Amino acid sequence: MAQRPKTPEPRPAPRLYLVTPAIADAAAFAPVLKAALAAGDVAAGLLRLANGDDRTQINRVKALAPCVQAAGAALLLDGHAGLIARGGADGAHVAAPEVTDALEALKPDWIVGVGAVSSRHGAMTAAEAGCDYVMFGEPDAQGHRPPFETTLERVAWWAEVFEIPCVAYAASLEEITPLIEAGADFIAVGHDADDWIWTDPARAIAALAPHLKLPEGAL
After folding, report:
1. Which residue from 69, 70, 71 is spatially nearest to 91, judged by alpha carbons?
2. Under 8 Å CB-to-CB from 27, ≥6 apart: which residues?
3. What is the mean pLDDT of the chain?
């Protein structure tokens, strides 16, 4: 597993990782997504898909992948590793128990990120398997998140020890600075259609810019 070098390079400023609501109407969501991408420095978008058959799902991905990629960001699917190639996405974000199958199916051509990490051991196992990043603190299918103090502790531990990037989920502006100070490489925002990001994405993401700064003296 890659660990932090003893003499690390200067740490780059954290970037945004957008999480979409569960998308059923991709055409209607496309202008909303484009506005969000234009409002800030977005590294990746995680596309969550509403239920549907494979053809419907693939068409949704095909409708949204070009606008994400044209903005210089990677489009990842929340699960659905089997649709990556057919939809034109850049990779998949999978739950920790699914990482081995996803890596076998997608590497080395596509990105594989891991979330739903319930323990330090689970995070280390995913990293040892070869994932591209680990995410901490995101909501589960019912919208529940781990305690914020737990997420901060995991992010700080990961940043201290491992080289593989860490994505930290922020549910509000107030959570961003502590997560960056803890060592997050990317800040994930968004999730539901009525949350603080997607109700007015251009304004919300523009408001994030002052918060996406490294603490003074950070490596």
Report:
1. 69
2. 63
3. 91
Token pair of 213 as six digits: 């700064």
pLDDT at 216: 61
Sign of the CA dihedral running 36, 41, 46, 52: positive
List the Cα angle 88/91/95 in 5-degree steps: 135
Token duo for residue 120: 């330090």
Q: Which residues are within 8 A (CB) of 26 and not within 5 positions of it... i.e. 6 or more apart?
A: 59, 60, 61, 63, 64
Tell me the two tokens of residue 20: 């979409």
Main-chain dihedrals φ then ψ at residue 91, nearest 5 degrees: 165, -170
Q: Map out the domains of the chain as residue ranges.
A: 15-204
Residue 91, beta-bridge partner list: 76, 111
Q: How many whole angstroms separate alpha carbon 187 and alpha carbon 210?
A: 13
Q: Determine how β-strand 91-95 pairs with β-strand 111-115.
A: parallel
* CATH number of the domain located at residue range(s) 15-204 in this protein: 3.20.20.70
- Whether the predicted pLDDT of 87 surpasses 90: yes
Q: Which two tokens stand for residue 200?
A: 């007015």
What is the distance between the alpha carbons of residues 35 and 154, in angstroms, rounded to a whole number? 32
Nearest CA to 123 among 104, 86, 151? 151
